Structures are given as C-alpha cells and as structure tokens.
C-alpha cells in the first residue's frame, strides 16, 4: 500500500498553522505589556546627578549586569518612543509612566544635553529616524 501523503501534508500544515498562531499570540502578549513603572521619586533621585543620568543612558543604550532590570524592558521600547517623539500613550504607558517619560526627556534635554544627544543617537533603533 502506498503511504498516505495527504494526511502527512495535512498534519504538517496543521502543525505550521499552530506554530504560527503561537508566535502571533506571543507577539501580541509581548507587545501588550506596559513599560515597567518607575516612581517619580526614583526618577528624580537618579537624575539628580550627572553620574546617575549617565548610568541610565548607558543602560538604555546597552543593558548590562548592574543595570536596573526595569531599564532592560524600558530599553526595548526606546525605538518606539524615538519614533513617537517620546510620546507614550496607553496601552504602552500608564498615565504615571507617560508623565515620567516627559519628565525624563525635559530633564535630560535641559540639564544633560550631551547625554541626551548620546541617547538619541546611540540607542537601539536610533538609526531608523
């Protein structure tokens, strides 16, 4: 008896469809996650000094050991924030996070313009502008 190639092809297509569906679900869930919350006090404390601001910029450009884990997730959103002129609306940002992004941008532009330029020119996805 000849092998049933139709059932093999059908099960192969079903498996590919299931994998594609799973990848889509993972992509949707990953995209729906919000930028991690940082309190205004935490942000103000870190941006108080040039060293603190520099540490944030370096961690956003290239996350490494010793960086706050939240910066790794925030860093993943830098390309999207860059393309939106750092406007951050729901569902990506809560009202608090949106205010903190605005505070961060204004503080960096006014108090640490060189670090700001370094961030926007060297951040992942900066070349897409």
Report on this model:
InterPro entries: OS_D_A10/PebIII_sf. Keywords: Signal. Residues 1-32 form the signal peptide. The structure is a single chain. By secondary structure, this protein is mostly helical. The protein has two domains: 1-32; 35-128, Antennal chemosensory protein a6 (Orthogonal Bundle), CATH 1.10.2080.10. Helix content is 70%, strand content 0%. The protein is built from six helices and no strands. The chain has helices at residues 5-32, 40-47, 50-61, 69-83, 95-111, 113-122. α3 crosses α4 (69-83), α3 (50-61) runs parallel beside α6 (113-122) and α5 (95-111) packs across α6 (113-122). The chain is elongated and about 65 Å long. It starts with a helix and ends in a 7-residue tail after the last helix.
SSE blueprint:
Layout: H1 5-32, H2 40-47, H3 50-61, H4 69-83, H5 95-111, H6 113-122
Helix pairs in contact: 3-4, 3-6, 5-6
Signal peptide: 1-32
InterPro entries: OS_D_A10/PebIII_sf (IPR036682)
Keywords: Signal
Shape: elongated
Main sheet: strands, sense, barrel: none
The parts where pLDDT drops under 50 for at least 5 residues are: 20-32
Radius of gyration, rounded?
21 Å
> Terminal Cα separation, in Å?
61 Å
**CATH architecture heading of the largest domain:** Orthogonal Bundle
Number of helices: 6
